[in-house]
């Protein structure tokens, strides 16, 4: 596993008012950490990992990607650190889902995706076609629910207390709720489109891609 490639610049503060991964792992309490790992990483062992993080940061702050990877790995027996497999059946480090969860949370990815979907709804005329490609189940579920007209105005299940973006998000809640209620979509494909085996062999990175297509009514 290359932990730096998975989490990369998440340990670098990109904007003064935005948290980085170091803020999250060193500041949030154990319950909040576990919730983030479970919700955004779909990590079954979220409580065990959160406990390991809290114990480790009591000794030294977690400030490096490899440090976090080692902390997560330390919560499991050595024999299963690479026991997980990705969709190509390649060994995946046990901390992969933790890194995914932090990336999605820090980058606010689900809200950004929803904002983009609302922008597309506003830009499309009736009969306009919306095509969305997602790369993991959380994104795909959000797109599916959006096209079904579900209320997605409150995507922020977990808040970071020092995240000053909160006031901005509150202003967008009503707009997002209206976005979902004011548009109706007709699916072009009854089922989600996924890559064929030949597509995956040619482009392994697209193995988890899912395409949904709908017409704006």
TrEMBL record:
<dbReference type="InterPro" id="IPR002903">
    <property type="entry name" value="RsmH"/>
</dbReference>
<comment type="similarity">
    <text>Belongs to the methyltransferase superfamily. RsmH family.</text>
</comment>
<keyword id="KW-0949">S-adenosyl-L-methionine</keyword>
<dbReference type="InterPro" id="IPR029063">
    <property type="entry name" value="SAM-dependent_MTases_sf"/>
</dbReference>
<keyword id="KW-0489">Methyltransferase</keyword>
<dbReference type="InterPro" id="IPR023397">
    <property type="entry name" value="SAM-dep_MeTrfase_MraW_recog"/>
</dbReference>
<protein>
    <recommendedName>
        <fullName>Methyltransferase like 15</fullName>
    </recommendedName>
</protein>
<dbReference type="Pfam" id="PF01795">
    <property type="entry name" value="Methyltransf_5"/>
</dbReference>
<keyword id="KW-0808">Transferase</keyword>
